[in-house]
Amino acid sequence: MHPLARLDHRYVxxxxxxxxxxxxxEPIIIVSGRGSRLYDVHGREFLDANSSIWTNLHGHNHxxxxxxxxxxxxxxxxxSALGLxxxxxxxxxxxxxxxxxxxxxxxxxxxKVFYSDDGSTALEVALKLAYEFTRRTRGPGSRPRFLSLxxxxxxxxxxxxxLGHIPLFHRTWRKLLFPTDTVMAPYCYRCPFNRARPERxxxxxxxxCRWECVDAVAGRLEQQKKRRGEPYAAFVLEPLxxxxxxxxxxxxxxxxxxxxxxxxxxxxxxxxxxMTGFGRTGLPEPRRLSASHAPLFACQHxxxxxxxxxxxxxxxxxxxxxxxxxxxxxxxxxxxxxxDEFKTFFHGHSYTANQLGxxxxxxxxxxxxxxxxxxxxxxxxxxxxxxxxxxxxxPQVGDIRQVGLVAGVELVRDWTTREPFxxxxxxxxxxxxxxxxxxxxxxxxxxVVVLMPPYCTRPREVRQIIHTLAEACEEVFGKTPPRGRSGxxxxxxx
Length: 494
Hints:
This protein has helices at about 5-10, 20, 50-55, 65-75, 85-100, 120-140, 160, 165-170, 205, 210-230, 255-265, 330-335, 355-370, 370-390, 425-435, 460-475, and strands at about 30-35, 35-40, 45-50, 110-115, 145-150, 180-185, 235, 240, 250, 270, 310, 325-330, 395-405, 405-415, 420, 440, 445, 450. It has two domains: about 5-60 and about 375-475, Aspartate Aminotransferase, domain 1, CATH 3.90.1150.10; about 70-370, Aspartate Aminotransferase, domain 2 (3-Layer(aba) Sandwich), CATH 3.40.640.10. Helix content is about 35%, strand content about 15%. It is built from 16 helices and 18 strands.
């Protein structure tokens, strides 16, 4: 075993990892990276098929991001944002507000930026601001309550955990949490209202339903108002696709519909774009867009303007921890007052608005808005769509869900019945381990294999990733012939 592996085993406690299993084998120890590739201590090369847990955008060791970080390092690494301002943070805030503009959308514009450290803290900021804003605008008797989706995951700080509804992640802490309400998420593949038989296609394309998932949101909003005498303070969601829930995409139009329902009742909208932001959800009709008009945020795809936009992960292109919560002038104004009124937002972090992070994020935004990045994202989106189709030949593939540059491949015991593997069987884990042995790194969410490569990933590398996944399935499950009918595509019923 490599000396670094022994050090890791002796001292490091890894997140979301059963350490007894971890200590049984030598881990992959990454020492360098370039583009879409990572290299370990033994000189082995791997394709980074999940962008180092959804953070890296343009590839590792990018020369422009390296240069921006180095330039800032020559000036200063960090100074406090408590009582002081700094250049890159001010410039980045202006650029984020500009990038978040959504023309022809109703509702107030996002004009203010509060910096923090990661996705959890970005949500924690939005949660606290929405809570206090509601109390101040509805009166001291208000009892702000929050609504989020089934399968929601919004981070690991206690406020963010309270918004989450994945029992495996959250039940341990339930006695520490404040109560929140949950509502049905639009999971077309396993929706109880979808009357369509399984086909070899994305379930959103052949579903047969009457938008019962939207009706469920409407019912929950109305129930809250009647039972408690006031609407929810905020509805919290990941737009277009839920990440940790298992890469669960929303059918086109769902986001706009439920946003209108919330707006009609005066419910704030908190958009968690920690994973979906900065181009991850791709480009609608990419060949008709220009780089300057390409949406960077999922909400923009359906002309939705949230009251809070929570950003992290790809904000620095995968280089440094940095998060931002964008909000409206109305929310900001509710915290203005004389010093002795103590209306200040009493919340902050030691590394808030760190110069190294904000300087790198500025360059990251410039890259995203360049023609080169725009063309790379079009190429990757279209290549993923072409290559993923080959996986329908794998009998254990039940659903393939692609939203832009994000894909989730759900593994099942029998695709004709949608019968899932028991989580104890570790089907997703075993497939990803087999992929790693073949030089492709990703991490599953239960039985869903996540594919989210950096934007610089080339078509031949996408083919390698997909081919490796198919080979890994054959190794883990054996070579079983496809079962049942192949199915035909039908237009989804409105």
